[in-house]
Design goal:
With about 160 residues, the chain is of the alpha+beta class. It has one domain. The protein is about 35% helix and about 20% strand. It has six helices and four strands, in the order βββααβαααα. It has a four-stranded antiparallel β-sheet, with helices on one face. A hairpin with a 6-residue loop joins strand 2 and strand 3. Helix 5 packs antiparallel against helix 6. The longest helix is centred in the C-terminal third of the chain and has 15 residues. It is globular and about 45 Å long.
Length: about 160
């Protein structure tokens, strides 16, 4: 168990280092629970903890219900797929998911967005080409690291 708290940032972070299996996906995931007042207060800490904290997966309904009922921010990071995303991409998706067109997204990706739940699909296969394309096209500053990262992933998918 790792615990971090900061009165100045109104932040209380508790990490429970136990693996568990989700009933549907059977994937091993690491659970991180964040209880905070100011959304931006924990971002510097997350950046310091990179690269573990670079992917969100909140498809577990029971966990989401627990999070919502207790007003706790819950983030699940898939360690096996963690290297697929950088923190900047995750932050961008969290801020812009409501602007994405969801009608043609893969059925695995849709639940990550439908109820305002933070998340992004892990598997960058051909079925996620549309999602990646929308993310790339949503980036305003083409010189940003995020834009370059998405463009690279987009080009790789385009060739496959």
């Amino acid at each position: 168990m790792f615990s971090y708290s900061s009165k100045a940032n109104n932040l209380n972070l508790v990490i429970n280092p136990e693996f568990f299996y989700k009933k549907k996906s059977k994937k091993r995931v690491f659970d991180f629970y964040f209880n905070y007042i100011n959304d931006s207060s924990f971002l510097p800490l997350l950046i310091k903890m990179y690269p573990l904290l670079n992917f969100l997966d909140c498809r577990d309904r029971q966990l989401n219900n627990l999070i919502n009922s207790q007003n706790i921010k819950g983030l699940i990071f898939n360690l096996e797929m963690a290297q697929d995303f950088d923190l900047e991409t995750v932050i961008f998706v969290r801020k812009n998911f409501d602007k994405l067109m969801l009608s043609d997204l893969d059925t695995m990706a849709y639940p990550l967005f439908k109820n305002g739940i933070d998340g992004i699909i892990t598997d960058f296969s051909s079925r996620n080409y549309n999602l990646l394309s929308k993310l790339k096209n949503s980036v305003i500053n083409s010189d940003s690291m995020l834009a370059k990262s998405l463009q690279l992933k987009y080009n790789v998918l385009k060739k496959s």
